Predict the 3D structure of the following.
Amino acid sequence: MLRGLTTIPTNTRIMVFVVLIISAAVGVIVLSFLRHPWTPSGSRRFLEGHRKRTMSKTSALEAPTDGPLKHLGPLEILGSMAKLACTRNMVMLLPVCIYSGLDLCFYVSILGTSIGYTEAFGDLREALVGLNGVFVGVGQIAGGMLFASLGKCAQKHGRDPALVLGGMLSHFLAYYLVYVSLPANSPLLVTSDPTFIKPNPYIAMFCAALLGFGDAAWINQLCALLGTLFLKDAIVAFAYFQFIQCMVCCAAFFYTPYLTLPYQILINIIGCVAGVFGFCMVEWKAATETQKKARIQSIRDKAEIEALLRIVKPKNGHQTESILMERVTEK
């Protein structure tokens, strides 16, 4: 619709803004009908739903769910964020939050700028800048749907395989393809410098989709971990995550006009490795604690069975023992 135009017509601009304003208004109206979790009924429903979901499982990550959720004001949230930032788990997850900000800056700003400044794309440069955002969104949608469908598998085998395979490897592949297909100084100025392989619009859009897919893996697994680590402080935990992500993204915008593409990719790779390390350390520690709790519970169950068998003297000992085992298992 806008191809070949040097200026955007007034009618087109009005139509775009009207659509955006209506969409924003609909979103605000829908959100206004949602019940806040800190209201008495909302808190009760939230906690009851969580108990039902976790009734058959005991996780070391889960916080106590007794009592209503407390509504926190802005100053209270800031104070809670400062306390939460000093905890061991949040310190280990800090690299993950930092990398999410670096990743956000890369696919929002750096990749689109590099594509737009690469003369080898010809007249498609401006169109590819817009399509870059579209394909990032496509990757995020695909990744979100995939990892949401694999939620039970992640609970069984841990979240680290999904993060490593879905987030880390897809981003590494995207960084490699960007490095070999786009000029080194493309984030800085319009350039026609040679590259390892000829710039290809399909490869560029594939990189955008990979970045979106990997971002969905990072955000999905991190949000799931924060939601279980800090159940009653979920608002504070997510606020802290968003704060770090936005601060790092803002800081990254300051150095992007001065660094060439290879150095920016190197910074992201270092951040990605550090983020995976921190995430896996927290995940593995939680898994170890879960196994310890399971062993302790198993020992308690056996002791309870033995105590009951001493008290009860049935005619058929094997039958009663099996019944007791079933009752303890049901607990």
Remarks:
- Confidence is low (pLDDT under 50) at residues 54-67.
- The chain has two domains: 74-278, 289-330.
- The chain has eleven helices and no strands.
- Residues 44 and 67 are 8 Å apart (CA to CA).
